[in-house]
Amino acid sequence: MKQAIRSAIKTAVLFTIILFAIHSQVPAQDHAAEIDRFVGLCHQYGRFNGSVLVAENGRVIYKKGFGPANMEWDQPNGPDTKFQIGSLTKQFTAMLIMQLVEEGRVDLDGTITDYLPDYRPDTGRQVTVHHLLTHTSGIPNYTALPGFWTDTIQRSMPREQFVETMCSSDLEFEPGSTFKYCNTGYYLLGMIVEQVTGHSFEDVLREKILEPAGMENTGLYRPRALFKKRASGYYRNLDRYVNADFVAHPELYVFSAGAMYATVEDLYRWDQALYTEQLLSGKYKKIMFTPCLNSYAYGWGVRKIPLGATGDSTTMISHTGDAPGFNARIVRLADDHHLIVLMHNAGHTDLHEISRGITNILYDLPYDRPQRSIARTLLQTIMEQDVATAVEQYHALKKEHPDAYDFNEEELNFLGYDLLEAGHNVEALEIFKLNAQAYPESWNVHDSLGEAYLVNGDRDRAVECYQRSLQLNPDQQETDLARMLEERAEE
Fold first, then answer.
1. Fewer CB atoms < 10 Å away: N or C end of the chain?
2. Both 213 and 124 in a single domain?
3. Residue 240: in which H helix or E strand, if any?
4. Between vectors from CA 382 to CA 49 and to CA 66, what angle results, nearest 5°?
């Protein structure tokens, strides 16, 4: 067994001894070159496939594409490639609302029913525009409702019917009392834009933001439309990539909460416009960027971040976005007019870590080198040998090279689900068990392990895992545990 383990890790270790010094000090005069080395390693290790743009003191110092925009045709990503940006859409929706506030057509203290009179009055009279903008409305997130991704999204319906059936649930908490990220709120804000202006959200977006800012390669994403240089979205399924799920009508189902596309170059133009009063006056921009609960302002997260161990800090204005097969992140370091834009089209990746590394480079601070994926390393061993060897390999690498690989709990969780999806149920169970040993206090890890036991026919152990998960996080809703305990009570 020891010989098999050494054989499994030999190749990876040879490449990590030199490249994975934990920190690196960056010369101030060569930020672009260091960013290129850093992002290049992220791409080499399968951490990034997309486009990146970095501006320093308002000037673009680096922009580049990595990997294919379309894997079937080997079309490369570039700074002008169009990506779905998911929830980065929210900052544009918030800007449209603030423009209408400045024009006196919308009141931040106005309620939903002031603008959408057909909305259910008992809750609509309690929730204000401010609550919608700050994710404090108490309205449930429709994308988290049971059956949304498996049933609702397969059907087509008028937007008014969608609001009535998916965006009008009972409140989960008193408006203004709690932060809970909610796509529903931003969907309703888009409806308010249309109701107040008498025009489509898409037309208002183009007229009031995109055209004034010169954003010619940004808009509302429609998968059946033809437009040049569009990136395709992919997921990694075990040792290969597959096309991401097709959503026929994102303009209906995610709309003003997450249906836009853009290029990194256009988001630079957006960033530059936000430093002026071209789109919104200083008075209302101040309101827009003032953080509320959970450091969330209107369409942006706004917080102070420390600059290493210097004792200094800077303001970070940021947001991430997800769409099937896509991730996006924008970071505005507004005190110094720095900007980081990352767009990725090959499934889930941690863009926070990449943006953090680039931030440290810009400020001449030590930064963590990219790490290899432990999940991909173990997967290769599972496919070529067996899961027992992979488990031993995990322990050996964690002991001997703890800084060379990413041992985050998400790594094994994603690997486990990939194995389940491919029908490798026994191997998946062993990976989830390994993750539970490594992260015994994670409710999500125990929930995943319970699912694996259930798939493998061990109902009793599945219940034990779900119970442990519920102990660690009592706020879980609609869990398999709750349903199973109900069934057991009825037996």
1. C
2. yes
3. strand 240-243
4. 10
Which pair of tokens denotes residue 407? 């041992």
* Beta-sheet strands, E only, within 34-126: 50-56, 59-65, 68-70, 75-76, 83-86
In a domain, 38, yes or no: no
Q: Is the dihedral of CA 278, 284, 285, 288 positive or negative?
A: negative
Inside any domain, residue 22: no
Structure confidence at residue 344 (pLDDT): 98
pLDDT band at 365 (very low <50, low <70, confident <90, very high): very high
Q: Among residues 362, 385, 417, which one ends one of the domains?
A: 362
Domain CATH number, residue 452: 1.25.40.10
Using CA atoms, how far residue 82 sits from 69, 303, 362, in Å, is 9, 29, 26
Count Cβ atoms below 10 Å from residue 354 Cβ, excluding itself. Answer: 22
Nearest to 274 by CA among 342, 330, 190: 330
Query: Would you state the pLDDT for residue 481?
Result: 55
Lowest average pLDDT, out of 57-61, 247-251, 327-331, 365-369, goes to: 247-251
Cα–Cα distance for residue pair 93/85, rounded to 1 Å: 13
Q: Which two tokens stand for residue 77?
A: 């990503």
Q: Which domain holds residue 453?
A: 372-490
Q: What are phi and psi of 391, to 5 degrees?
A: -65, -45
Query: What is d(CA 229, CA 195) in angstroms, rounded to the nearest whole number?
Result: 33
Amino acid of residue 108: L
Last residue of a domain, one of 307, 339, 362: 362
Closest by alpha carbon to 452, among 462, 443, 460, 442?
462
How many percent of the chain have pLDDT more than 90? 76
* DSSP type of residue 81: -
Determine how many CB atoms are found less than 10 A away from the CB of residue 103. 11
Q: In a 10 Å sphere around its CB, with 0-12 CB exposed, 13-18 middle and 19+ buried, how is residue 1 labelled? A: exposed
Structural tokens at position 450: 């319970």
- Mean pLDDT score, 211-234: 93
Model confidence at 275, in pLDDT bands (50, 70, 90)?
very high
Q: Are residues 320 and 437 in the same domain?
A: no
Decide if pLDDT at 13 tops 70.
no
482 — pLDDT class (breaks 50, 70, 90):
low
Q: Do 266 and 191 form a contact (C-beta atoms < 8 A)?
A: no
Length of the chain: 491
Mean pLDDT over the full length of the chain: 90
Query: Does residue 391 share a domain with residue 358?
Result: no
Cα 288–chain centre separation:
22
CA-closest candidate to residue 2, choices 399, 381, 393, 400? 393
C-alpha 70/C-alpha 416 separation (Å) is 27
CA dist list (Å): 440 to 428, 443, 472: 17, 8, 10
pTM (2 d.p.): 0.86
Q: What is the pLDDT of residues 116-137, one digit of tens each?
A: 999 999 999 999 999 999 999 9
Beta bridge partners of 237: 240
CA nearest neighbour of 362 among 7, 5, 33:
33
